[in-house]
Specification:
It holds the Pfam family BFN_dom. One of its GO terms (molecular function) is nuclease activity. The chain has eight helices and seven strands, in the order E-E-E-H-H-E-E-E-H-E-H-H-H-H-H. The C terminus is likely disordered. The chain has a single domain, classed as Bifunctional nuclease domain. It has a seven-stranded mixed sheet. A hairpin with a 4-residue loop joins strand 1 and strand 2. It is of the alpha+beta class.
Length: 208
Amino acid sequence: MTLIPVEYHGVHTAGPEQFTCVLLRWAEQNRILPIWMSPLAAAELDIRQGGYTPRRPGTIDLLLDLLNRSTGGVTAVNIISHYEGVFIASLVLADGEQLDARPSDALLIARALELEIHVEEDVLNQASFFVSDDVLEEYFGLRFDSAPTTSGEELSASGDAEADADFEQMMRSLGMSESDFFEGNGPADAGPESDSGPDDEEENTEKD
């Protein structure tokens, strides 16, 4: 298993249905990995990222307290699997044990403990995609200034026609066209994020 560090770039919404996701970036390849999750999970991640501290311990606070007392705490957060739009994360504990987790919970823990997030390389190759710098800046308020395409070349969104096809396929899997994906959706400053696919059964379990 090859784990690659990724950058965390906050909670965003996409498309007319306002699906929520966290954007992770594979900097070395300039690729974006969206982690889709339910609005409830995204909202909690977003408000905690903004500095909110609940007056009473929440589920994540209780989990961290139990892990600290019983195992010495969490030492790493990894995303290790992706199948049919569903991601599986792993919490690596100080005693060497690993616990499977939903990405929403794993990301909450990573942000709470200021841990770097790593993603299995196969998952990145399967589920990440290119988005042009201009699109990222216009709709998500992000810019990474990747290398420009040589003057005179025909431009695609990413400079890679195959990558654009992958991106289009991802959007169609969400029931959206390219115009739907960006229609009326400006930069997201404080919107909720997402975990796995928006049609993932996790959304139902989050609401239980």
